[in-house]
Amino acid sequence: MKNVKTFLFTIIGIFLLFSCSASAASTVTTSEIYSLANGDYLETILIQDSTSRATSSTKSGQKTTYYKSSSGVTLWSVKASFSYTYGKSSTCTSVTGSSASSSVAWKVSSASSKKNGNTATASATGYHYTNGALVESLSRSVSLSCDIYGSLS
User: N or C: which end of the chain has fewer CB within 10 A?
Assistant: First the structure.
């Protein structure tokens, strides 16, 4: 009988471990690509938590726009990390903006972020240098909003 109880508790423990791991996982929900005239492109990815709408009235995740070269190398990015509450209304409770450059030819400004009602936005500007001279600049913003049902757009 003791072995049966141990076996059952082990099975229940494994089940709980996998169900907790699955609920904590993030899900890529959308990916958009915008081509630029010079062959480079912008890729925007929205990642949101996979918490069931039936068990929670909060949602969190991040939306990132990557500026990529025509060969697919990420040159710089701007990201908004956010959280929302939803139900009878929808409100952005926090947003944090961040930016990064992964190319010596590109410098990127510190990201600014703001929230307004159910919308969160982060913005940054990338500056392209050649031989120490500024060649071009490109400003990008990532915005997202949450409706009363917890759907992000």
Answer: N
